[in-house]
Amino acid sequence: MANKDAMIGKLRSMLGDNAVCVDEKFGAGVVAAATASAEKLREVLGAFKDTGFFLETMCALDFKDTLELVYHLNCFEPKSRMSLRVMAGHGALVPTASDIFTAADWLEREVREFYGIQFDGHPDPRNLLLPEDADYHPLKKEFGKVHAYRTREEIYG
Residue 148 class from Cβ within 10 Å (0-12 exposed, 13-18 middle, 19+ buried)? Predict the structure, then answer.
């Protein structure tokens, strides 16, 4: 319990109470969800690492008005999984976390490949699955025919 509670306290002090949502019932599969700016990303992820958390996974969401990165972090305590959401505008450069969490190396490569989000300072931005000369990002809504391309506000309110 010490790591989870300590991390929630750190998140509140770094990001403010409005940026952190705690759910002790674990309804969404996370005990806490936080939202940070890209400028604070490395500071927040460093705090997670210093508190004993590891990077489980990361993914991205494509909206008409923005791209959103979602980091899932966990530690070896029951019900300690947390999520960190970072907004990245289309064409924005996001700082890499590959030197903080080694797992971020491949996860960032995958997100860059499929969504086109560029990570500043990433040591190896080659494609993992697509051909080397691929000039498209298949998980972006502009790729192919998508009829449900909405803004973040339309979906989350």
Answer: exposed
